[in-house]
Automatic annotation (TrEMBL):
Sorted UniProt keywords: Membrane, Transmembrane, Transmembrane helix
Protein name, UniProt field: Biotin transport system permease protein
Record CDD domains: EcfT
One Pfam entry name: CbiQ
Primary localization class, coarse: membrane
Keyword Transmembrane: yes
Transmembrane segments: 21-52, 72-89, 101-121, 141-159
UniProt membrane topology term: Multi-pass membrane protein
Length: 203
């Protein structure tokens, strides 16, 4: 989960972790604050594309190959999210919300792709240091944020593994038969993560 960083020499790799996290967080917040209408989906998608294009990831396709990999990994999560919102909200807000969330996840992935976990932990801990005066432990919050960022690609990997197992058994793509094993494995992962943290004294 904590080995998502990919070494590189682009300007985003060289940028200090703190300012980079603030910049990507501001972009993500801006995307989330867009209204749930059609044009918001276009803007949210454009933000993610431009962010990967200018990140100098050097994947041979101006960042689009890396963007495609991240998007492909998220596809089953997006299917579940879009289907549930289409059912209750209708096409326009469902597409806009799904695109905004996808853009936010892609920006979070860009942060973990270009920042070593230790640098990210240190930056978050330094930024939250003033909270010690309020008896809040910045180290715990930094760990929580880092785990949250790292969990997104883990869920994407679980989704891919579930679908691959279904394909190996000759099962057709079906949302109902996908959701149950995906949730069971995800909850099992959460339990294991909780036990691992507890064994290291994090409660």
């Amino acid at each position: 989960m904590l080995t998502l960083y990919r070494p590189g020499t682009g300007w985003l790799h060289r940028m200090p972790a703190g300012p980079k996290a603030v910049m990507l967080l501001a972009l993500t917040l801006g995307v989330f604050l867009l209204p749930p209408v059609w044009w918001s989906a276009v803007v949210a998608a454009a933000v993610a594309v431009v962010a990967y294009a200018v990140a100098q990831l050097r994947d041979g396709a101006l960042g689009m190959r890396d963007l495609g990999r991240q998007l492909f990994g998220l596809r089953w999560i997006l299917v579940v999210m879009l289907a549930s919102q289409l059912l209750f909200l209708g096409p326009e807000p469902a597409v806009a919300n799904a695109t905004r969330v996808t853009s936010g996840l892609l920006l979070a992935a860009l942060l973990t792709l270009t920042t070593p976990t230790t640098a990210l932990l240190d930056a978050v801990e330094r930024g939250l240091a003033p909270l010690r005066h309020l008896r809040i432990d910045p180290q715990r919050i930094a760990l929580l944020l880092t785990i949250t960022l790292g969990t997104v690609p883990v869920l994407a990997r679980i989704a891919n593994e579930v679908r691959a197992a279904q394909k190996a058994r000759g099962a057709r793509a079906n949302l109902r038969t996908f959701v149950v094993p995906f949730l069971v494995i995800s909850l099992k992962h959460a339990d294991e993560l909780g036990e691992a943290l507890a064994s290291r004294g994090v409660r």
